[in-house]
Every structure is written in structure tokens, then in C-alpha cells.
Amino acid sequence: MYSVQPGAQAAAARDYLDENATFADPIVIAATSDSVKTAFMGNKLAFALVEPKISSVTEGTDDAGNHVVAVDADIAYTLRLLPIKLTVRTLSKFVIDSGSNRVVFHEDIWSVADLMEQIPIVGTLYSSLARPFASSMTSMLVSMLMPKHAVPPPSSTTNGNASV
User: Fold this and answer.
1) What's the chain's Rg over C-alpha atoms?
2) Is the pTM of this model over 0.85?
3) Which residue range(s) make up the domain with 99?
4) Is residue 102 a contact partner of residue 12, using CB atoms and an 8 Å limit?
5) How many CB atoms lie within 10 A of CB 97?
6) 52 with 118, same domain?
7) pLDDT tens per residue, range 57-94
């Protein structure tokens, strides 16, 4: 599904996806095989090259007896319009139906921060402005919403011993 080669995504979807397959990542959720295919079509538009480097593959079963595969990989995306290559550490989880042997669930877990920080200018703004601002806003909201007595006072003990 990650391929930018013509026909490769269609073949993968035809051969491996259940018609009611779901895909999720930090940005997208798609709830049918058609919407999963559409979500991955963006790869062909945005990237000239997608290069996965797999670190490990772990297999098991879920409570329903379905086959579960977890793939840990660094995926390098070369942008089509800009000379930028972004490498994203991704954990992909695939749930394969035990009856049909087709993928019914695919989830990619990756860090938005890791992605943003690799983009020139955007990464600097994100790291130096957006993240600290979000942290300050969260602290302010917690302070406003939490009663003063709900937040424990700083401890004056060290390793369980009271200071004298």
C-alpha cells in the first residue's frame, strides 16, 4: 500500500484487504477498503519514493484468533515537489482475519513531532514555538480547572526522610 509504483497499490488492495478493512494513523482514519485505498493514493501524489527499512516483525494472535503482525520500520519518504527526504519511525499493526486471511485492520503508529521537526523552517517553528505554546496552554488550563487543594504541594522529603 505504501508503493508509489503504478498498479502496486491496487494489486495489494485486491489481494490482501478485506472489503471492510480499517486503516488508522495519527492523521487519517479510513473505514472501508475503498477509503483505505484513497488514503494511500496520497502517497503517489506527495512522494517520489517511499523506502521502508524494516527493523523487526513480530507475530501473534488476538483474543478472536486472528493473526496479528507488528512491523517496526524506518520509512523514508522523498517528497515529489521539494528536495526533502523525511524518515519516520513507524510501528505498523496488521490484523488478518482468521477465516478470510485478509487484512481487516491496519494501524500505523508514528510521532507527529518527529515528522514535523525534519521539515526545514516548519520544524524550527514547531519545536521552538508550537510545542512550548501547547505546553504553556495545557499548564494554564490545568491550573484553571483543578482546584488548588487537588494539586499536591511540593514534597519536603528526600528519599522518604523529612528535612529538618
Assistant:
1) 22
2) no
3) 1-110
4) no
5) 17
6) no
7) 999 999 999 999 999 999 999 999 888 899 999 999 99
